[in-house]
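Narrative summary of target 7.
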Amino acid sequence: MPAGRDVEAFEERAARYEHGWLGQLHREIVDRATAIALASHPGPRRVLDVGCGTGYQLRLLAHRCPDAVELAGIDPAPAMVEVAQASAADPRIAAQMGFAEQLPYVDDAFDLVLSTTSFDHWADQRAGLRECARVLAADGRLVLVDLFSAFLIPTLVGARRTKARTKARANRLLVGEGLHPVGWQHVHPLVNAVVAVR
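Modeled conformation, tokenized:
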């Protein structure tokens, strides 16, 4: 398993991830991210959640997208995937273990690809974006939601100095992997969303 994934921390928190004040904060961010995603691509038929965690966003999308035929999720933490599978009452939802850098799906498979607060944990953001572009349909949308600062200085501390923590750096990575940002939106303090197309 590539370094820097924080899988152990998510393994330990899986059973209680949606509970408490952190769970409430996560749900608020996901609710807003879902609204942004559906505004950018109303009525998606096939959706992929990269870093699906407990599957909360997949369940929300199942409720909001009655015409969707596939709601797929992938996450590197086995315990998160177990919770997602156990909580998925809708047969359209399928969560499995895997990595952003090696998506187990065919080219052009999804018209909406989402990643909500997992991008910062990808071991290789460039490779993950390349994979997202590969599985995204020609008229699809990628919605990337994470801790993106408008300024460089807050992003230079801690272990994630090499990650795309600013909007400008994220834009450069997206364009470098064949994706074109079409707009940024504020989700929560320091949490922003970018919508991109192929």
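The longest helix spans residues 20-40.
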